[in-house]
Amino acid sequence: MLNAFPMLSALHADGPAADRAAAMWLYGRFVGSWSGRLIYFDAQNIRHETSAEVHFGWALEGRAVQDIWIAPSRSERQPGEPQIMYGATLRVYDPGSDTWQIIWTDPVWQVYDRMTGRADGDNIVQEYRMPDGARCQWMFTEITENSFHWIRRESTDDGLHWELRGEFLLHRQVSDSIKAA
Predict the structure, then answer these.
(1) Which domain of life is it from (predicted)?
(2) pLDDT per residue over 97-149, tens digit each?
């Protein structure tokens, strides 16, 4: 299938680049397909829940990890049901700073976020400032080989208090998609 689409063939990689393979596993461990639930809070702080699917893959000769986040999932979306998100993240490891440069784009909502990511103990924390100056964190927590918890939270007082805005509870769908470095 990749050969039929030259752009996809050029984007796809079979694994991490050799010159940074160890560092690439911070996100590379997620390579594969995931499904689960998205819980989110709207502008009136009303809780909503829907199905979700996420797909991670090696990209750009193994120097990046790219992923696609979809809610509701394509398999469970009802005819006429609006999309909540259908976007992509490009995660590029920066050996000079030992951080990840991350860009998220969601054409459904015209959202474009640029952030940095890093390991934080057993978790991964990505952070950026929103246009109003609030801090926003995206966190991968409770990470196992077959599941993880993803959290989005915001702080208007520079991290003293955090407000949960959304979370994904995901489980791996393809168990053999991680290839050893």
Answers:
(1) Bacteria
(2) 999 999 999 999 999 999 999 999 999 999 999 999 999 999 999 999 999 99
Two structure tokens written together for 181: 């470095």
**By C-alpha distance, which of 91, 83, 36, 46 is closest to 67?**
91
Q: What is the pLDDT of residues 24-55, one digit of tens each?
A: 999 999 999 999 999 999 889 999 999 999 99
How far CA 70 is from CA of 89, 94, 146, in Å, comes to 12, 27, 19
> Which amino acid type is present at position 90?
L
pTM of the model: 0.91
The tokens of 75 are what? 């398999």
Element (H, E) at 11: helix 6-11
CA-based torsion, 34, 24, 149, 152: positive or negative: negative
Q: What angle do CA 77, 86, 47 make, to 5 degrees?
A: 65
